[in-house]
Task: structure prediction
Amino acid sequence: MKFYIEAANYNDCGTWFKPREAELELRIGDACFHGTWERVSPMLAVDDDSLEEKRLADLFDSLGLPLARALQQGVPWLGYIGFTVSDFDRSLVEGETEISATARILITDTLNKVHSIEKSNVKVLIGRLCFIFEIVSQQ
Result:
C-alpha cells in the first residue's frame, strides 16, 4: 500500500527519520491491519486521471542520501510512503475500485520521537498502481 503524505519536523532542532521503523495501522470498518515500511519504487505510477503528477516519489528519497542533511524544523516534507500489509483481507475490496479507510502512520526520528499522521476517510484506490512506462504509452 502506498500513501501520499505531507509532514514537517516540529522538533526544536533538525533530525533524521528512520524509514525502517515506520508503521501503518489501517482500519476498514471493524477490520484493522498493520503494515511495515517498504521503499516506493521510482518506476511506479498511479493510474488516476484526478492526479496531476502520476509518478510516485518516495518520501524518504526526497531527503537525499542517508545522513546527507537533517530535516529542519518546519520544512515541508512531501511524498509517498509504502507499506507491506501481509495480513490484509483482500475480500474487503473485491469488486471495488476505491474504498474509504482510516490510516495512522507512525514515523520515528533519530531523537526517538514518534511522529503520528492520522486521517479518517482516506480514499484508498484499488488496482491503480502500474509502471510509469504504462502511463506514458497511453498518452
